[in-house]
Structure formats: structure tokens, C-alpha cells
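I have been asked to look over a protein record a colleague put together. This is what I was given:
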Amino acid sequence: MDKPESWKTSALAWLVLSLVVIVLDQAAKAVVLAMLPPYQPHQVIPGLLNWTLAFNTGAAFSFLDIGPGWQRWLFSGLAIVVSAALVRWLATIPRSDWHNALPLSLVIGGALGNLIDRLRFGQVTDFIDVYWGEAHFPAFNVADSAITVGAVLLIWFGLFAKGQKTS
């Protein structure tokens, strides 16, 4: 694949979507921080969804949440490195290649949204609490949703994109 020569032809313009994800994520977190007391569920859809303000110093599913604080810097550094690598990847693909640009932009926006929390507060603010009966999925946020959707789309399009040859 030929590399695009400039911002005008590369998928870097898709970073606008990353910015939208960051703004939506930070706005939602600001609202829940201002309005919800921590760890007290507020029912949205009975039997399925609560708004529950929670905090996570670890990674997804509270991985390494019990560490003494070093994980803040590990996950911050990881977000910066991964986001930089994905921006470089965006620069190499044509703007019209939305099968790659869309998911990469979602992941970048989500990673940077959570990075802002880590740098500002030393933890990530979560508030979307999905459950069924007594079983609760770990709380998450808009940034986590963008990362997950982006990763799933990247895998999906990688496996099932039309015209892609398999070896």
C-alpha cells in the first residue's frame, strides 16, 4: 500500500473523532464527579444498568488496582506509547480507509481520555455499571467503551474485510 503524502490524504484527519471521544469522555466524567456520590448505585434500567461512580488505579477490570501507585505511571506511559504508535499508523493509511481509521481513532481517543484521568487524579473515573441479577460487570466509562469498540472493529475488519486476501 502506498503511503499518503500529507495530512490532506492521510487518515490523520480521523483524529477529529479521537478528539470527540476525549471531549465526550471528559464531559461525562465531569458530570458524574459533580453529581454522584462514590459507590452508590443510581438505577437507570432496572436489572441491567446503574450509574455508579467508582475509581480505578489499575487497568481494565481493575487489573493491578491494588499496587502502591507505580501502576499510574506504567499505564500512563503505555497509553502515550500506544497512542503515538497508532497515530503513526494513521499517518500511513489513506483517509478513505475507514476500516482502519475508525477503529484506530476510537482506541486513541479512549486511551487519551483515560490518560487525562490518570495524570489529573492518579486514577480513572468509571461510572457505567452493567449487571444482571447479582452479577456485575466491572464499571467502565466512555473511554473504555471507545477502546473496546475500536479493538473489536479492528479485529472484525481485519478478519472479514471485503477483498482481503488470506494466506
